[in-house]
Please model this.
Amino acid sequence: MKRALQGLLIVVVAVALAQGPAHTQSADLVLCDRVAADPADPDKPADAKGVADIAASDIATAIKFCKNAANSSRRAMYQLGRAYAANRQTAEAMAAWRKAADKGSTSAMVELGVLYGTGAGVARDEAQARKLFERAAQAGNPRGISNLAALGGGGASSDPARARELLSKAAETNAEAQYQLGMMLADGNGGARDDTAARALFEKAAAQNHPGALERMGAFAQEGRGGPKDSEAAKAYYQRAAALGDEDAKKALERLRCPYTIKDKRGNVVTNLCF
Model:
């Protein structure tokens, strides 16, 4: 394992050096991105795939290289917080996220807001959570917008229509915003239901390999919502989402494989017929 990590670092350093003098110090950040980048982070570079959860086997690596890169990169500081959180070091995660938030990381603002909103590792403070979500939302962070709307309690922050407005701006470029806005349109939350517009947004986000959007595209194609019905396309979308770890897509694939349910006289499921 150690030899493999050393080999990977050599490759990363070589790539960084090949990119020119401005990037000669970026090897730590490149490796930090590789194991700890957040797919929903607006700061994430386009060529970094990101991971929904940092793998247990990568936590030590993430902490090491993200810490090395954190002084010169707010993204690395945020990712360092993710690594600490994955290692159940809440105090260290909060410290890293505070520093990243001070540098303008909207994802760090959201994570801090979640901790304050839930009282995880810190005294619960909904007012502080709201302030953090508002800062992130004003900067266009989709999770900041959706979390702000979820807090409720009156005011613009609890107004789904306002959430739609904010998401619409972020959805111009951000896959997570496209997905979140698509969900609001599909559910008729904050305005009229619009399956066609929702499907178009899911399709944009799916093209960027957003797992949730891929799963929704599968469902819309399977049902013919907002566009043509296409069972083969639905299966392909589900497969792509499942490969990225989406549990709903995995269940949908299983239902496609075993579509017929056999029940007893009482209506209890006895078995499923699979192909």
Summary: The chain is about 65% helix and 5% strand. The first helix runs from residue 2 to 18. Confidence is low (pLDDT under 50) at residues 1-25, 153-157.
